[in-house]
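Obj.: predict assembly geometry.
Materials: sequence records (below).
Method: joint structure prediction, all chains together.
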Amino acid sequence: MTTKLTPLSERSAWKALSAHHQKIGDTQLKQLFAEDPGRGERFTLEAAGIFLDYSKNRITDETLKLLLQLAEESGLRERIDAMFRGDKINITENRAVLHVALRAPQGEKIVVDGEDVVPGVHAVLDKMAAFADRVRSGAWKGHTGKRIKNVINIGIGGSDLGPVMAYEALKHYSQRDITFRFVSNVDGTDFVEAVQDLNADETLFLVASKTFTTLETMTNAHSARDWSLAGLGGDEKAVAKHFVAISTNAKEVAKFGIDTANMFEFWDWVGGRYSMDSAIGLSTMLAIGPDNFRAMLDGFHQMDEHFRTAPFASNLPVLLGLLTVWYTDFFDAQTVAVLPYEQYLKRFPAYLQQLTMESNGKHVTLDGERVATVTGPIYWGEPGTNGQHSFYQLIHQGTRLIPCDFIGFYKTLNPLGQHHDMLMANVFAQAEALAFGKTAEQVKAEGTPDWLVPHRVFEGNRPSNTILADQLTPEVLGKLIALYEHAVFTQGTIWSIDSFDQWGVELGKVLAQKIIGELESKTEPALSHDTSTTNLIRRYRKNK
Ligand SMILES: O=P(O)(O)OC[C@H]1O[C@H](O)[C@H](O)[C@@H](O)[C@@H]1O
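Observations (raw structure tokens):
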């Protein structure tokens, strides 16, 4: 970093926000709505076909003004420009951060190390499309001449969560005569269960790994290779028809035994958790076809352009990101619940967990100083209405403040009687109940005995966003994901952290490597761990 950043707590907007929070922090949403009849319409924003109602947040016009000022003071504009320009803003890995280039239309120019990366992106997309067409049409044959009926993606983290989420989200558009499965865990059960009813001669494995060195993925890929060869008469030549690789690391791909002609490339400027729209999305393209995949990319791009060009006050990802900072740092909210009222988005919260928490789970600033404020909240959630019958109790009546993002669609992909209206009624009802609650007077007026009244009171004043879109199409999915990607970027910029590295995952990996040897050694290993770890290892060795 060339210029040293003003520490967050010394930025004038931050100080003003602290004072402002003292003043309005306890103000009730009920009061804010009563005082301002236009609030429910004014605090909304529609862009790129995504509608956001943020009126049920504990904010006033002044809060918004100060949050937007904080974005300016934190250099958000410059950071956005730097990212889109291909600057190496991932400073700890000295890398550009260019997931936006993955959806840049042909003809756009984004230069990294003197090279325009956009033509390469489109060359890979074309290669993926040609391959996907062959597999989907049956032109691509397995080793024994049969068509591919099963596709198994082997990957973990960003090489799994994005593909699974997108496959589930876009299942409506998928080719139903191909079975898709996803193997990620190094627990052998994951692989064994995924293949137990499949024939090797009809099964294609996609080995997805940015580094192609990840322990879990390589272990699963080797087991897949053994399983394939066993089912195909042990002929090594079969590998070429049943394995393709998706990676940035051609050397390791070749070492594994996959012909690099069967490799779909991406680049070090694509972070794992930002890679589901790169070649890592090959399973998605195989499922929904190249046209739908391109429509998804177009959706991403529309949100990218909105984020890049819209003034902050009318910028969806900026507002979403700033509101999260507001609750995390001033209300001590530790989590954000993401609640999609759309069954197809059932894996969206899990996907967002890596996107948000691996990005902003950081405790040092870009300057290497310990942060002075709290950073990345915990994201979690389940699709509605299921969550309502499980954990919503705590959101409504517990002691914690949990800001919620409700996500819903005007139209369902599966019209069925009254189902969709019922589903959406629940979105609106939950947000209303959280915000406005139910007073003791109201409870009493219903004839509730006095002793029961406190139990039945809803305090309200629980904030939420409601995000609405037309229908869950590939394009809309792209927009939604980009919305969160850029909201995470906005948060990371305010906190002045590197949202694009993930050093926190390293230590456990290194220690596990050592312990694997200790668990497997034939002779009693000399152990030099703490007494707890030593004891656990000994106990496992004795009982395994
Ligand atoms: O794609 P790979 O190189 O196999 O990495 C898979 C995942 O593992 C790492 O540990 C990181 O925490 C993730 O960011 C990454 O997505």
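Conclusions so far: The chain has three domains: 27-87+310-495, 111-288, 506-543.
To do: check interface contacts against the pulldown list.
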